[in-house]
Structure formats: structure tokens, C-alpha cells
Structure prediction request, 228 residues.
Amino acid sequence: MFKLISTLLRGGAHDAEQAFADRNAVPLLAQQIRDAAQSIQTARRSVAVAIAQNEQEKAQHQTILSRIADLENRATAALTKGNEGLAREAAEAIAFLEAERDASEQAQSQFTTSIAKLKGIVRDAEARLQALQRGERLARATEEAQKLDVAVAGPGLATLDDAEETLARLRLRQSQNELTAAALKEMEGATRPAGIIEKLANASCGAPLASSADDVLARLKSRITPAA
Prediction:
């Protein structure tokens, strides 16, 4: 019985934990992405340090090669002069430097292999991080859209319906006002003498109320006195 109860309790705790994670999935994802980005930044620094150390190793290797070449020339000069004892000391130093040279070359090879591997890991991690960041942005947009959809489907839907009805009534009233204003203007123009005269003039009944361009041009031409 105790084992059964313990199992049920662990199951309930797991369900509660999973439900909490589901409710907070977006902020949880955002924090996980920030943690991953920090880890990638640390990995970048590690690669940079490895590259710097490899460059130092290369510089040290060149120094060793220069010393070996110098000692070989000096040892050869000592042998030429018959000073074999001094030449032997130089040979011992050369042997020590050659051991350092070989160790440096081995270290460079290991650095090169490790750096290439680390760069590949960082590139893959960066690509995965970018995909996660895009997914997070999409998840946030989807969550907001779903919230809006729920709001519209609930009380928000009635609000939208009411707003549409209000807009329809407003447009109808504005249309009626415009028609009323046009009718009043027409009635006012029909009853005023000035309005009747304007209608008659527009119908070419009697002299026009306003001069046309042709009238003005004819008047200007009449002012011109023909040359004698």
C-alpha cells in the first residue's frame, strides 16, 4: 500500500510539474534560449583562447627553429676550428631544442584539431540557437493570436457585433443627413428668384450670368484698332 501511495504521489507531482511547465512554456523557452546563448558565448571565448594559445605556440616554435639554426652554424664553426668540446655543448643544446620543437609541433597539431572541432560545435549550436529564437518569436505571436481569438470568441465577439451595428447606424444617419441637405438646397434654389434666373441662364434662356472665355476674347479683340 505504501509503495502504491508513493507512486501515486510521484505521479501527481509529475503531472503538476508538467502542467506548470505547459502554462509557462513561452517564458520557460525564453529563459532556456538565454541560457543556451550564454553557453555558446562561453564556447566562443574558449575557441578564441585556444586560437590565441595556438598562435603563441607557433611563435615559440619559430623562435626554437631560429635558435637551432643559429646553434648549428656556431657548432659547425667550432668544429672547423677544432674545438670539439664546445661543439658538443652546442650539439646537446640543439638536441634539447629539437625535443622542444617536436613537442611544439605536436601541440600545434592538437590545437589545430581541437580548434576545428570546437568551431564546428559552435557553428552547429549557433544554427540551432537561431532556429530556437525564430521558433520563440513564432510561439509568442501564436500565443498572442490565440489570446485574441479567445477574447473575440468570448465577450469580445459581442463587442465587435455592437461596434459594427453602431457603425452601420452612423453611416445611415450621415447618408440621410447628406440627402436632406441636398434636398433643402434644391428647394431653396427653386424658390428664390436668383435661383430661377440661374436655371434660365444655364438653359440659354436670355443673357448668360457669367462671361465665357470666348466672350472675353471677343471683347479684347474689339479693342484692337486695325492699322491704317
The helical segments are 2-23, 25-80, 84-191, 193-202, 213-222. The chain has a mean pLDDT of 79. The longest helix spans residues 84-191. The chain is about 90% helix and 0% strand.
